[in-house]
Automatic annotation (TrEMBL):
Record GO biological process: glutaminyl-tRNAGln biosynthesis via transamidation; regulation of translational fidelity; translation
Family: Belongs to the GatC family.
This protein's record includes keyword Ligase: yes
Protein name in UniProt: Aspartyl/glutamyl-tRNA(Asn/Gln) amidotransferase subunit C
Task of the protein: Allows the formation of correctly charged Asn-tRNA(Asn) or Gln-tRNA(Gln) through the transamidation of misacylated Asp-tRNA(Asn) or Glu-tRNA(Gln) in organisms which lack either or both of asparaginyl-tRNA or glutaminyl-tRNA synthetases. The reaction takes place in the presence of glutamine and ATP through an activated phospho-Asp-tRNA(Asn) or phospho-Glu-tRNA(Gln).
Organism of provenance: Paracoccus gahaiensis
InterPro entries, per the entry: Asp/Glu-ADT_sf_sub_c, GatC
Length: 95
């Protein structure tokens, strides 16, 4: 499958990427090489191979789900650039 300049232009438009007309041939070649690599990957036999999320098997660290009041508002607000009366202070954005 070969990507044409018109198809590369359409992909750039759909991705909301501004591409100069003189850069379209290079973009088309790059997209074409990506699709060729994907075709190569489709040729690999993965029958019987379990999907994995990482290269080493790991279990997620879990903690007990306990409801608490938090009790650390002062610590959290100490990181804020501006805090007033126990709340984050932000600039007014609506008139």
């Amino acid at each position: 499958m070969s990507i044409t300049e018109d198809q590369a232009r359409k992909v750039a438009h759909l991705a909301r990427i501004a591409v100069d007309e003189d850069a379209l041939p290079a973009l088309a070649r790059e997209l074409d090489s990506i699709l060729q690599f994907m075709d190569q990957l489709n040729e690999v036999d993965v029958e019987g191979i379990e999907p994995m999320t990482g290269v080493t098997p790991m279990r997620l660290k879990r903690r007990e789900d306990v409801v608490s009041s938090g009790g650390m508002a002062d610590r959290i607000l100490s990181n804020a650039p501006d805090a007033r009366e126990g709340f984050f202070a932000v600039p007014k954005v609506v008139e």
